[in-house]
Amino acid sequence: MKLTQQDMARILGVTTVTIRNWRKEKPNLYKIVMQGFAFDEAIESAKENYEKLEALKEKVSKK
User: Fold this and answer.
1) What is the dihedral of CA 38, 39, 41, 42, to 10 degrees?
2) pTM for this one?
3) How far apart are CA 22 and CA 37, in angstroms?
4) Using CA atoms, how far apart are residues 5 and 20, in angstroms rounded to an integer?
5) Which of 37, 31, 35, 5 is nearest to 19 (CA)?
6) pLDDT value, residue 63
7) Mean pLDDT of the chain
8) Which end of the chain is more exposed for a tag (fewer CB within 10 A), N or C?
9) What are the E-state strand segments in 1-63?
10) Where are the alpha helices (DSSP H) in 1-63?
11) Span 18-46, mean pLDDT?
12) How do the domains of the chain map onto residue ranges?
């Protein structure tokens, strides 16, 4: 699930204006924060894929 700037701001406890300011005035900080969110999304996606594979494995082994 792709997070909006509002979602990210809520999670971080800042305003969307702060995130926009980081993007303009503190690009390295903004990049690190965005990489953190991308990492979290990748982990969540990997978990979902793992669960799907486990379910498929169980289906195949029952036959």
Assistant:
1) 120
2) 0.77
3) 15
4) 9
5) 5
6) 66
7) 94
8) C
9) none
10) 5-12, 16-25, 27-62
11) 96
12) 5-62
